[in-house]
Design brief:
binds uridine-diphosphate-N-acetylglucosamine; alpha/beta; about 45% helix; 13 strands
Length: about 375
């Protein structure tokens, strides 16, 4: 069974790594890794392959950046001849980035089975590009692998046939469990001159936050206050670095020496920092899950989340983008000493890839969708 595994952007890498490793254990499976090249800087791409022990992709399609239509269309154009030439039995996609959508569309139209890992998540906010990617991918996928119970409910409500849906847990947490010890051994806090448990970590990259100068200025203003109480380490996504400049926030940042802007970090470096943080503030989807798995308090700078288990069960709090609400959430989090509160959601046990590959080996035998 030939499986084309498609990645494109940074958050795809840690989801695909355990799946590739698991597939390679079975001689009847032939995984072929394809990188669209949506992310291309070494620190957004190659570094993750190296740290996670992923093989070099068989194809790197060099799609790069662009508007949503341009990026998705270029990924589709580049993927189609690869799928035609390789004639896979299955295309495997993860997450919700533009490359996920592009690969699913191309495969579905060629009559190739599509398996989507991290299916069913819904923020119910269609202004998020990822929400559109998730809805369309799930509508055309044949096997839908779900990380949390809300995903099951969403897919059932959307009328997806029960036999396509598999509740398997979270592959990103497989990767986290596998690498936490190595990540902690790097001693990242010491390297950056902070003490374990006595610093905050921040990430921001979502258009709703960084592309609106007043919103970005409001968030940076709260961080400038917080850095007086706690050092803040802020690895900056390339998009965000550009927006900070454009929004004229250089002076605010210069006046806040406790708020340290870093280059984007590798997987291990970032995991090492997150695991020992007093607090994480983020607009990322994946980091909400990783902090829940680590038992580290997380304040999410968004109005909604497609990962409600991190709130209902884990350590996540939604604070939105209003500075007053963020400030209140930060003070509340600092008032409760971190005690590992919250529980880890069902099946986030490091064995999701095993379950997924077992199911693929069964369902793969049913052959291409359209005969
Ligand atoms: C993408 C995903 C988002 C994910 C994020 C993680 C979509 C719609 N969005 O957002 O879901 O959370 O990745 O990082 O797929 N850039 C570089 N170097 C790179 C990559 C990007 O400088 O290697 C800059 C470019 O200016 C580019 C911008 O970042 O225009 C945005 O990149 P893009 O891939 O379009 O989206 P992300 O914001 O990274």
């Amino acid at each position: 069974m030939k499986i084309l595994a498609v990645v494109g952007a940074r958050p795809n890498m840690m989801k695909m790594a355990p799946l590739l490793e698991e597939m390679r254990r079975y001689p009847d499976l032939e995984p072929v890794l394809v990188h669209t090249g949506q992310h291309y800087d070494r620190r957004m791409s190659q570094l993750f392959f190296e740290e996670l022990g992923m093989p070099e992709p068989a194809y790197n399609l060099g799609v790069g950046s662009g508007t949503h239509a341009v990026q998705t269309a270029q990924a589709m154009q580049a993927l189609e001849p690869v799928f035609i030439q390789e004639r896979p039995d299955l295309v495997l996609v993860v997450g919700d980035v533009n490359s996920t959508l592009a690969a699913s569309l191309v495969a579905a139209k060629l009559g190739i089975r599509v398996a989507h890992v991290e299916a069913g998540l819904r923020s119910f906010d269609r202004s998020m590009p990822e929400e559109i990617n998730r809805i369309v991918t799930d509508a055309i996928a044949d096997d839908l692998f779900v990380t949390e119970r809300s995903g099951l409910e969403n897919l059932r409500r959307e009328g997806v046939a029960e036999e396509k849906i598999h509740f398997v847990g979270n592959v990103m947490i497989d990767t986290l469990r596998r690498h936490t010890e190595r990540a902690l051994a790097l001693g990242m806090p010491a390297q950056l001159g902070v003490r374990p448990g006595e610093y905050a970590v921040v990430t921001l990259h979502r258009p709703a936050c960084v592309d609106v100068p007043e919103v970005l200025a409001g968030v940076v203003g709260v961080l400038a206050e917080l850095q007086r109480r706690l050092p803040i380490l802020f690895p900056v996504h390339p998009r965000t670095r550009a927006r900070l400049q454009e929004a004229g926030l250089a002076a605010t940042l210069a006046a806040a020496p406790g708020l340290r802007l870093l280059e984007p970090l590798g997987y291990l470096e970032f995991l090492g920092l997150m695991a020992d943080a007093r607090l994480v503030l983020t607009d990322s989807g994946g980091i909400q899950e990783e902090t829940t798995a680590l038992g580290v308090p997380c304040i999410t700078l968004r109005e909604n989340t497609e990962r409600p288990a991190t709130i209902d069960e884990g350590t996540n709090v939604l604070a939105g983008l209003d500075p007053a609400r963020i400030r209140t959430a930060v003070l509340a989090a600092l008032a409760n000493r971190h005690d590992g509160r919250g529980r880890v959601p069902e099946l986030w046990d490091g064995r999701a890839a095993e379950r997924i590959v077992a199911i693929l080996r069964r369902t793969g035998a049913s052959g291409p969708r359209h005969g």
